[in-house]
């Protein structure tokens, strides 16, 4: 258990008012985000069949919560880790037009998560996906989309400031673009987390690009599943977060794999056996649209905009008793 207790922490808003602010942020952000990105709201599953290959494998070591059901003997059902692959399949199924897309509430259980101020076993985010042209699979498209998302987040800062001026956490005015290799070159003696902290403290907000593949030193900056993001066209939106003196990831996103890049990444990951799964066969047969998509953490965004010290202040989950007691003693009220 890793826990940061900010010195002289002031939650600024009582629990009931915090709950009102959470509702306001979630409802306002998703409406503005959908309009800005030309996305329609769609319902999404909480669980999928293991046999479809639709679940997110994350770093390849996390095991999903799974169960069986009476009406499907022999079939394993898994609680989603994310909806990265399901969304692309849904865009095809529901015949979305070019440059339109979907967003949805995604609720996941990641039981193997290491708990701290910003990590919970309960993950709640807006998952989104949008149809693009094949020729738009490039950095220009990726960066333009990142700037759109940053614009909506900045606008939400102003909205929250108007309603809760005493609580809003002020954000930088610009987002910067840095690759994982550039970060490694810049801070060769630091580990992954320390590099992210250092660049965010220096620049305020960063889109860290090209996550998943090996760098020049042969190591990965961080893991990514090989069958949804193109490792050359993805990244994370990171903010410097003063209350915890560290970086805070709010979004992971990217242009999705083509048949060629998925085959290459599956080979690099030693996961070519996935090519036999229904989803992967459909993609390799070029039956799915080209897309860009990602997830934006709902609790993470609320935490950021309200200056909270612990994600448990803006979501209800399960925490070790020791963590709850230490937080309560410091004025951090875990829901």
Automatic annotation (TrEMBL):
Keyword set includes Nuclease: no
An annotated GO BP: L-asparagine biosynthetic process
Keyword line: Amino-acid biosynthesis, Asparagine biosynthesis, ATP-binding, Cytoplasm, Ligase, Nucleotide-binding
Subcellular location: Cytoplasm
A Pfam family this chain is assigned to: AsnA
Highest taxon above the source species: Bacteria
GO cellular component terms, semicolon-separated: cytosol
Family affiliation: Belongs to the class-II aminoacyl-tRNA synthetase family. AsnA subfamily.
Name of this protein: Aspartate--ammonia ligase
